[in-house]
Structures are given as C-alpha cells and as structure tokens.
Design a protein that fits this description.
Family: Belongs to the serine-aspartate repeat-containing protein (SDr) family.
Keywords: Cell wall, Peptidoglycan-anchor, Secreted, Signal
Subcellular location: Secreted, Cell wall
Membrane topology: Peptidoglycan-anchor
Structural class: mainly beta
Number of domains: 3
Oligomer: single chain
GO biological process, one term: cell adhesion
Largest sheet: 5 strands, antiparallel
Length: 469
C-alpha cells in the first residue's frame, strides 16, 4: 500500500508566549521555571496528534513542540535574566533564530534566541516586566523529526532550508531538496508547486543519481532535467533514471519579515504516484506577552461620599459590548473584576442603590498602558432621588344658596389650618369654579374675601383636607 510522504518542515521556531505578569531589580541570572525542559515538551504531528514520548520521528516530517511554562511568584525577574528552553532529542531545529517577545501593547519584553543544532534555546528578558507576577504561558516550536525511517520502494520526499542570508540574518535565497526512489520506472516527472512569496531561480537547478558504495550512498552521475515553468508550477522531467535521484534548486524569498515570521511552502508530486510531498521553510517567529489586570470600583453618595452597596453594573468593552453583567457593589461599596486583558473598558450602571438616581454615564478606564498598575481603582457617585411629597388638587364651586346657579367673581384666600394665607385673590370663573393644584398632604381652608356682585360676603371658612396617597 502506498503511503503519503510528507516533506519535512524545516526546523525553525515560532513562539507564542503568554505572560501574566508584577517585579524588582537584581543581577542577571538564570530564572527558575517549570515546563520548559525537554521532558515537559509535548510533540504533535501536523494533524494535531500527540506523539508518545521518545517515539522515533521522521526527518522528512514536520512536528510542533509545545511547552506550558510558569515562573514562580517568588522568583524575582530583572533585565538580562534568562530562561532555558530544552529541545527534545527526537526532533531537530536546524536554523538560527532570533525574535522579540512582546507584551499586550506590542512592546518588547525580551528576546528568544536559538542556535541551529543546540539542545536548548534561550529567552532573555529586559526590565519591562520588572515588578510583575503570575507569569505563565506557552511556547511552540516548529521542528522536524530526528530519525531516518525507510519507506516504500517508489517514493518522493522533499525538504527545504535557508541557503543564504544578509548581514541582518534575513534570508536571501532558499534551498529546496527533492529525493525520488524511481522503482522500476526510468522516466521521472516531478511537478513542483511553489507557495507564495518566492521566485524560482532556474540557473540553480542541479540533479544527480545516487550510487551505493560499501553500503554508503554517494553522489553518482549528473543528470539534466527538462524544466518547464508555468507560473508557480515547475515541471522537472528526467529519463534513464536507474537509481535514487536527488534534485536541488533555489528560490528567492519575498516579503521577508523577521519579526512576524515567514513560512515558504512547496509541494512536489511524482508521476504515477498518487501522493504529494510537502515542505516548509520557516523563518523568524514571534513572541507575545499578556498580563492579568484587575479593577476595583467604589460607589459613593455624591453629597456625603458615603459608600453605597447594591449598585449593579455591566462591564463593557470600548464598543459597548457587554463582557460581564450583574456586578454588584458590596457592603463596602465595592466590586472587583479580575483576570482582564489589556484594553479599554467601561462600567455602566444598570441599577442604582435604593433611593438613588441611576447614573447612566459610562465610567471608562484603560488597562495595560506602559508601566500600568496590575490593579487600578475607579469610582463613581450617585445622586439621591429628590423627595417628592405627595400632592393633591382641589376645586371650589360657588353657587347661589337658593337657586344653585353658579356664581363668577367670588374672591377667596387659601389658608392652612392655622389661618396662614398661602394664596390670595383666587377668583371663581364663569363656571363658578376656582382650582388649586400641587397641594401637599394636610388641612386647608378657603376664606371668601369678596362676594360676587349683588351677594353678601360669606366669611365662614370652608375647610378641606388633602390626604397622602
């Protein structure tokens, strides 16, 4: 049965570091850390399958090496301090790599470096995370296996590497290497599909057959393929292939970015063989750091500054998206939100304490600014609701004592129960009525001060009561 062979992923590092960080100052030293030794590494294949520890891994196959690490809070971290990353023995990283490790703001907090062939890599920190705590994260390395595993009689395999670099270490040419076991077919056609961001260099094509001398493979006669280029698809045609074939050529990389990292991909297939082989050249990498932040809100009375319990808030992001709801101040007038990433946030009050008006103004704050505190304090005041007394209305109707005809032009005073004049010159209208509104609960009286024309003054007080509710 034919097996698909995957060309090996050139071993380079791609790091994603998550730091949750508080520090002080001391001399540069090796930091105590858990999870970054070779035995703690977990190796996954391209399909995400976890490889058993110490398993033999093929040199033509790519893998991901993942670490979960933590620095104890008791460990003081200072500028120049380093962390060692152990590389498992069953994988190989072949390129020199150096890239910055950054925090949530994109600021560099350290540098990851690796020298091809070494058993370890190193993270060197600067002083940006001095004074931080709760430091843990992950590190992922792209690598190849470290064992040669024999395959089918007829096969194709591909690998790649950085061939030359400039003074800054950025690649200037890439090297692609293809091996073919021809089986009984002397006519070989290799179809090679270049991934983006690279240009084929036709003058760099070299090919030869392999001889076996005293059990060792050595280069044999040179062979020259017919080369056809159609966009990013390159076809190499060979005849009279009698033994293992080796094909090498180079490409020019484009859009090189050492900080963000590059992956140059290539796929090769062999005529008559229903499989393809993939290879990647990976350059650079990236590191990032994040940090837990917390915020404490204190609620006050706007006038007395007394703390207020039972104020309820939503936590929103800067766009108004609700991240947490039902956050309520305690007996100390406080609520605390922890484990927040850097960013812009706002508290929005959704329910005011009893007897207070709702404060709908968003309380904005920012976490993760340079040298920000891990925990910040914010506060907001609420105004007491105004005391609105219960009020009532009254309407007086003036009529003729005998005919009950309504009488206009009667003039009254409104007095309280003690006779104090509250309003005067209140006159009945054409309907014989006068009205007073907005009276608080209590006892009142109307007293006529001028009778309608042709009528006697009735000075007897007319009492009434406004009741609450």
């Amino acid at each position: 049965m034919r097996k698909k062979r995957i060309g090996f992923l050139l071993s380079v590092l791609m790091a994603i570091l998550t730091l949750f960080v508080l520090g002080s100052t001391a001399h540069a030293k090796e930091i105590s850390v858990s999870g970054l030794d070779a035995n703690s590494a977990q190796v996954y294949d391209k399909n995400g399958q976890l490889m058993p520890p110490s398993s033999l891994l093929n040199t033509t196959t790519s893998y991901q090496v993942t670490y979960n690490w933590q620095i104890p809070d008791s460990e003081v971290l200072n500028a120049g301090d380093t962390v060692t990353v152990g590389i498992p023995a069953n994988v190989k990283v072949q390129n020199n790599v150096s890239f910055p490790v950054v925090d949530a703001d994109g600021a560099t907090i350290g540098t990851f470096t690796y020298k091809a062939g070494d058993p370890t890599g190193t993270i060197t920190f600067n002083d940006r995370i001095s004074g931080l705590q709760n430091r843990h994260g992950t590190l992922t390395i792209n690598a190849n296996g470290n064992s040669t595993i024999s395959g089918d009689e007829r096969s194709i395999a591909k690998s790649g590497s950085i061939f030359t670099s400039d003074e800054a270490g950025s690649p200037t040419t890439l090297f692609w290497h293809i091996t073919v076991q021809p089986g009984n077919n002397p006519t070989i056609v290799i179809t090679d599909t270049l991934g983006p961001n690279q240009t084929f260099l036709p003058d760099t094509v070299q090919a030869y057959l392999v001889n076996v001398v005293n059990g060792m493979e050595v280069p044999g006669r040179t062979v020259t393929p017919t080369v056809a280029v159609d966009g990013n698809i390159i076809t190499f045609s060979f005849t009279n292939v009698t033994s293992k074939l080796v094909l090498n050529y180079r490409t020019k990389p484009e859009n090189v970015d050492s900080a963000a990292g590059n992956v140059w991909h290539n796929t090769a297939s062999l005529n008559g063989l229903d499989v393809a082989t993939d290879a990647d050249i990976v350059f650079g990498g990236n590191g990032s750091a994040q940090q837990d932040y917390s915020v404490r809100l204190t609620k006050h009375d706007a006038d007395t500054q007394a703390v207020l319990a039972s104020a309820t808030y939503d936590l929103q992001d800067s766009t108004g998206k609700v991240l947490q709801s039902g956050l309520t101040t305690d007996a100390n007038g406080q609520l605390i939100v922890e484990k927040l990433a850097a960013g812009n946030y706002q508290f929005v009050e959704t329910k005011a304490p009893e007897g207070y008006e709702l404060n709908i103004k968003p309380l904005t704050f920012t976490l993760g600014t340079p040298k920000t505190l891990i925990s910040i304090e914010v506060s907001q005041d609420d105004q007491k609701m105004p005391v609105v007394p219960a009020t009532g209305d009254v309407t007086l109707t003036k009529t003729d004592a005998t005919t009950k005809k309504v009488l206009a032009g009667a003039v009254y005073e409104l007095r309280d129960a003690n006779g104090k004049v509250l309003q005067s010159n209140l006159k009945t209208d054409a309907a014989g009525q006068l009205a007073v509104t907005g009276l608080t609960a209590g006892d009142y009286q109307f007293v006529e001060t001028a009778a309608p024309t042709g009528y006697e003054l009735n000075a007897t007080p007319l009492p009434f009561t406004i009741k609450a509710g």
